[in-house]
Design a protein that fits this description.
Elements (H helix, E strand, L loop, with lengths): L1 E3 L3 E5 L5 H8 L14 H13 L4 E6 L5 E11 L2 E8 L8 H15 L5 E6 L4 H8 L3 E11 L5 E10 L5
Parallel strand pairs: 5-6
Antiparallel strand pairs: 1-2, 2-3, 3-4, 4-5, 6-8, 7-8
Helix pairs in contact: 1-2
């Protein structure tokens, strides 16, 4: 996949992206609602096996700097049903990069891949849920006390989805 937006290039991960991805995955604040922060070694292994090996995610590249500023989970879980997710470098939060990149990936999925549905899940019911709503996703369910957060507390898991309007 290679997509271009006003400020970003969205492409498959490359071996040289490990350090930029580690800046994202190695940061405790950034990973607060995901899992504990990664080591560089764990980041490299995850990037190689999942992002590159299984084509499970793509990189959001800042056009001006060439830096990987975001990880976008984009994984076909069932035939024509894709999961999307995002984690961005905190230096680029609240600037619209997550929306810009996820919107481009979703448009690509519906228009080019003829996806039937795209869904996302999160325990963060503030930032993640607001982005899901902005992307046009609708609440499909909440699993109460479904998983533990990074502090060992039980957290609700929010599911949002969007069906291809052309296939409804």
């Amino acid at each position: 996949m290679e997509l271009e937006t006003k400020r970003l290039i969205i492409r498959n991960f490359l071996q040289g992206d490990a350090q930029d991805l580690y800046e994202i995955f190695g940061d405790e604040e950034t990973m607060e609602h995901c899992e504990p922060a990664y080591t560089l070694e764990k980041t490299e292994k995850f990037m190689k096996e999942f992002c590159m090996g299984r084509n499970g995610a793509v990189a959001a590249i800042h056009k001006e700097t060439g830096k990987v500023i975001g990880y976008i989970l984009f994984n076909e879980l069932e035939d024509e049903v894709y999961e999307i997710g995002w984690i961005f470098n905190k230096a680029y939060w609240r600037q619209g990069y997550a929306y810009e990149s996820c919107k481009a990936v979703m448009d690509y999925a519906f228009d080019e891949l003829k996806a039937h549905k795209i869904f996302a899940e999160a325990i963060d019911n503030v930032k993640s849920v607001s982005l899901m709503k902005k992307l046009g996703m609708e609440l499909e369910g909440i699993q109460r006390s479904q998983s533990k957060d990074n502090h060992g507390n039980w957290a609700d898991l929010y599911f949002y989805g969007l069906q291809n309007k052309k296939q409804r």
